[in-house]
Design brief:
single chain, 47% helix, 13% strand
Length: 89
C-alpha cells in the first residue's frame, strides 16, 4: 500500500496585526515559496516583504521599535508553525 500525502493548499496561516483598529494579515513563513523565504536573509527583502502586506505609507510611519515587534511576532509564529526561523535555511 503506497504512502499518501494530501496537501491543503487553500489553508493560509497568517499573523494578524492590529494597528489603530485596522487588521493586517501577514502570511507566515510556512506559506512562502522556498525561494522567497530564502531571500528573507537580506534586510532589504525583509522590509519589502512587510511593506507588501502593511503598505508603504504605514511602513514609513512605524517606529523601529514597532517594526521590530511585528517582525519578532511574525518570526515566532513562523517558528511555532514549522520549526523554521528567520535566517535559517
Amino acid at each position: 500500500m503506497p504512502n499518501t500525502l494530501k496537501l491543503e493548499r487553500n489553508k493560509r496561516e497568517v499573523l494578524e496585526v492590529e494597528i489603530e483598529g485596522e487588521i493586517y494579515k501577514i502570511p507566515l513563513g510556512t506559506e512562502l515559496k522556498r525561494k522567497e523565504l530564502a531571500g528573507m536573509k537580506k534586510e532589504e527583502n525583509v522590509m519589502k516583504f512587510f511593506e507588501k502586506y502593511l503598505g508603504k505609507e504605514l511602513m514609513d510611519d512605524l517606529t523601529v521599535g514597532e517594526l521590530k515587534q511585528i517582525i519578532n511576532a511574525w518570526s515566532e509564529a513562523t517558528q511555532k508553525a514549522s520549526g523554521v526561523s528567520l535566517g535559517e535555511s
